[in-house]
């Protein structure tokens, strides 16, 4: 398939307008690029809706396209002119992949527009490559084979004044579709709620334990710090071990003397054998 080269307009020698189409060659330098997307890269409808504002129309976009789009992960856009809405569906990944093949990186991009919003006032058909032409029919910018229509020349962006109708590509939006993202977000929210609930329970238990420790400290007249109480415990453990050992040795000695019992009462020591 033959390819055509679209003329490019420079702004201040560091900015260009380009027409992005899979079959059109583009020369990329260090300039910033204002990109006009070919109709082959999006779906468009001109439609009247029972709403007044663009923000309300956005809520309807998915349902307005659901019967015509092939399988894919789509983003949507809309703008209004007069009483009509122009609604768009496009695949971020398809456009991003094409940009890469053309040597265009995100750093090159200044803005991205649809051909519909930038070329809808074009008079007659214009050639974009050896096989395709672009022209306006019923207010819709479309592509047709060159043999179908007589062109007035090659598309020239020299006199184009760009509109403010732009889109932003979701560089990672195609990896997970919108519905999956909502499900993942819901799971994350539930997970966060569970963690916060667990933290609340743990803090409550810690507070109860601290209260119990304080009550035991007062009841048993313990020292205010754990270090002091451990020192006292160590001291009494040592005393207990010494006394236990003493009693064991005393018991052995008494058995050797055939002494059965020793009692001490009323300051009188009594030994029975």
Topology summary:
Layout: E1 4-5, E2 9-11, E3 15-20, E4 24-25, E5 32-37, E6 43-47, H1 54-57, H2 61-65, E7 75-81, E8 84-90, H3 92-101, E9 109-114, H4 115-119, E10 125-127, E11 132-137, E12 140-145, E13 151-154, H5 178-219, H6 226-256, E14 261-265, E15 268-272
Structural class: alpha/beta
User: Radius of gyration, rounded?
Assistant: 43 Å
Helix content: 25-40%
Beta-strand percent range: 25-35%
Report the uncertain regions.
Answer: 5-13
Mean pLDDT: 83
What's the shape? rod-shaped
Strand order, largest beta sheet? 2-3-5-9
Largest sheet: 4 strands, mixed
Distance between the termini: 124 Å
Q: Spell out the helices and strands N to C.
A: EEEEEEHHEEHEHEEEEHHEE
- Write down how many β-strands occur, each being a DSSP E stretch of 2 or more residues: 15
Total of DSSP H or I helical runs spanning 4+ residues: 6
Could you give a quick summary of the protein structure above?
With 273 residues, the chain is an alpha/beta fold. It is 36% helix and 27% strand.
Description:
This protein is α/β, with parallel strands linked by helices and 273 residues long. It is 36% helix and 27% strand. It has six helices and 15 strands. Strands 2-3-5-9 form a four-stranded mixed sheet. It has a four-stranded mixed sheet with strand order 12-11-10-13. A three-stranded antiparallel sheet has the order 6-8-7. Strand 2 (9-11) and strand 3 (15-20) form a beta hairpin. It is rod-shaped.
């Amino acid at each position: 398939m033959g390819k055509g080269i679209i003329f490019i307009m420079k702004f201040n020698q560091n900015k260009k307008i380009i027409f992005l189409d899979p079959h059109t060659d583009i020369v990329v330098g260090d300039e910033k690029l204002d990109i006009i997307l070919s109709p082959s890269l999006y779906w468009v409808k001109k439609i009247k809706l029972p709403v007044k504002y663009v923000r309300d129309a956005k809520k309807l976009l998915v349902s307005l396209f659901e019967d015509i789009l092939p399988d894919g992960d789509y983003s949507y856009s809309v703008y209004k002119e007069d009483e009509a809405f122009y609604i768009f569906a496009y695949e971020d990944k398809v456009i991003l992949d094409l940009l890469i093949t053309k040597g265009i990186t995100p750093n090159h991009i200044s803005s991205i527009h649809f051909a519909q919003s930038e070329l809808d006032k074009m008079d007659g058909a214009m050639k974009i490559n050896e096989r395709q032409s672009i022209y306006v029919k019923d207010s819709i910018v479309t592509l047709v084979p060159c043999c179908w229509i007589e062109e007035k020349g090659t598309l020239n962006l020299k006199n184009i004044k760009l509109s403010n109708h732009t889109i932003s590509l979701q560089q990672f939006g195609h990896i997970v579709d919108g519905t999956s993202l909502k499900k993942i977000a819901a799971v994350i929210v539930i997970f966060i709620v569970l963690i916060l609930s667990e933290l609340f329970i743990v803090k409550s238990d810690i507070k109860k334990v601290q209260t119990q420790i304080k009550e035991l400290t007062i009841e048993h007249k313990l020292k205010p710090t754990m270090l002091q109480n451990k020192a006292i415990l160590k001291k009494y453990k040592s005393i207990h071990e010494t006394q236990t050992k003493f009693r064991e040795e005393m018991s052995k000695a008494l058995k050797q003397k055939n002494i059965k019992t020793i009692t001490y009462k009323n300051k009188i020591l009594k030994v029975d054998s």
